[in-house]
Amino acid sequence: MRFDTRTESCIFSLLPAAQDQARKFMEACISDGIHLKIVTGYRTYAEQDSIYSRGRTVPGPIVTDKRGGYSWHNFGIAWDIGIFDEQGLYQSDSPYYQRAGVA
């Protein structure tokens, strides 16, 4: 199964075994009626450090507790998702996040 361009790009950034798992995850969620995309995959240490700085040295909410080198994203084995409604609008707070977490 092929997914949207962003999801495919993020999946491609992962290690091969993680790519397989991400595809299985997406298929399970879609079959459960969850509209989602993978919005990040692999991150460099610098990208992870930039995200880590949010809510600490840069304004905004804290979104991670892992610095560069300590996140599974840095090793190509983690991905983040976004939930979207039927019209394709991002949903920052949706019960589908919890459902996707057990898919």
Helix and strand arrangement:
Blueprint: H1 5-12, H2 16-31, E1 36-40, H3 45-53, E2 80-84, E3 90-91, H4 96-101
Antiparallel strand pairs: 1-2, 2-3
Number of helices: 4
Count the E strands. Answer: 3
Low-confidence stretches: none
Q: How many domains in all?
A: 1
**Biggest β-sheet: count, sense, barrel?**
3 strands, antiparallel
Index terms:
103 residues; alpha+beta; 3-stranded antiparallel β-sheet; 4 helices; 38% helix; globular
Question: Quick recap of the structure?
Answer:
With 103 residues, the chain is an alpha+beta fold.
How does this structure look, described?
By secondary structure, the protein is an alpha+beta fold. The protein has one domain: Muramoyl-pentapeptide Carboxypeptidase, domain 2 (2-Layer Sandwich). Helices cover 38% and strands 12% of the residues. The chain contains four helices and three strands. Strands 1-2-3 form a three-stranded antiparallel β-sheet. Strand 2 and strand 3 form a beta hairpin. The protein is globular, with a radius of gyration of 14 Å.
